[in-house]
Design a protein that fits this description.
The radius of gyration is 30 Å and the shape is elongated. Helix content is 49%, strand content 16%. The chain is built from 10 helices and 10 strands. The C terminus is likely disordered. The protein is of the alpha+beta class.
């Protein structure tokens, strides 16, 4: 039976109205009937097959139809608004993608020409310096493309997990070694806070590394000079694995955190920050949710930033319960929604 009939239908009783509607009738179907005016005047019997199961008076039928039409119009407006939002997001994606790729491409093109001119004139030292800029621009563009491809694969349900039991201490140490040059350049101090007997985490090691690289890289980029960076992990009372990357940098306002979670978004302080694609945190969130985990930012201006990834108990290899099967992935929302 249609939901819109349930609240207005009464028991059939005796002396049923002469007109009937099926219990599966939709509002649009009833409104399209040639005798709709008579139905709204004299009421209708509600039948299931050929068996009467109720009756609806004319006024109650009119009220139910009005509510159903209003709900339909609200749903239609919502669908139109969602379609407009999706079109806007696609335009923003195309515009931002063009900007993110054109900027390093222009650097590569311009500095390649300078290298060629430098080599022709014998200025090999200048050429070597310019070649370093080319390499950095190419790496930045490659990172942007990799992030876009990862997001696209997840959005298309085409990002299967290659799961193994991961030692988070070793993984964190590897990530900090990889970011060592960046940390040294900023005078940053780095540390790992994990118990020696921390359980392994059943996860995709490459994706988990990407999560830590993005979070630690952001802390080093935006934490200011001599920032203190910590990668920590622990198992809570609910047997969940909590992975935290925190810093003592300038922190973020609620609005800045909201902006940072949107792909390609630009915050009000971008002029003072290093260039980036704006995909780091959205990708962290997507990769975490791919493991059925959750991700959140905790910060306030002047009090540093904490990025917390929470993995479900089924992925934590606790010694007391033996090997546990990892949860299957069920994606609930669009990445760009």
């Amino acid at each position: 039976m249609q939901d819109w009939l349930i609240d207005v239908m009464e028991p059939p009783g005796e002396d049923l109205p002469g007109r009937a509607i099926d219990a599966a009738t939709r509002p649009a179907e009833l409104l399209a009937r040639a005798d709709i005016a008579l139905c709204l005047t004299g009421g209708v019997a509600v039948v299931m097959g050929s068996e009467p199961i109720g009756r609806i008076s004319g006024p109650r039928l009119a009220q139910a139809l009005a509510r159903a039409v209003d709900a339909g119009e609200r749903a239609a407006r919502g669908a139109r608004d969602e379609a407009r939002r999706l079109r806007r997001d696609r335009r923003m994606l195309a515009a931002n993608l063009s900007h993110e790729l054109k900027t390093p491409l222009n650097a590569i093109s311009g500095y390649s020409e300078l290298v060629a001119l430098g080599l022709q004139s014998g200025r090999t030292h200048a050429a070597a310096s310019q070649n370093a800029v080319i390499w950095e621009a190419a790496q930045g563009m490659l990172s942007t493309l990799d992030s876009i491809l990862d997001l696209a694969r997840i959005e298309a349900d085409a990002a299967p997990l290659d799961e193994t039991d991961v030692d988070l201490r070793q993984l964190a140490a590897s990530v900090l070694r990889m970011l060592g040059t960046m940390a040294d350049a900023r005078g940053a101090s780095v540390a790992i806070e994990m118990e020696a007997d921390l359980p392994f985490l059943h996860a995709d090691a490459r994706m988990l590394r990407q999560i830590l690289v993005n979070l630690a890289g952001n802390a080093l980029k935006y934490g200011g000079e001599k920032v203190k960076l910590v990668i920590a992990a622990r198992v809570d009372k609910a047997d969940r694995m909590l992975i935290e990357v925190r810093d003592n940098g300038p922190g973020m306002s609620p609005r800045a955190m909201e902006t940072a979670m949107k792909p390609f978004a630009r915050g009000p302080d971008d002029k003072t920050m290093l260039a980036g694609s704006g995909l780091g945190l959205p990708l962290v969130k997507a990769l975490t949710e791919l493991h059925e985990g959750s991700f959140k930012l905790l910060s306030s201006p002047g009090r540093g930033t904490r990025a917390v990834v929470t993995m479900p108990p089924g992925r934590v290899r606790l010694a007391r319960s033996g090997r546990q099967e990892a949860f299957a992935f069920r994606r609930a929302n669009s990445l760009f929604g």
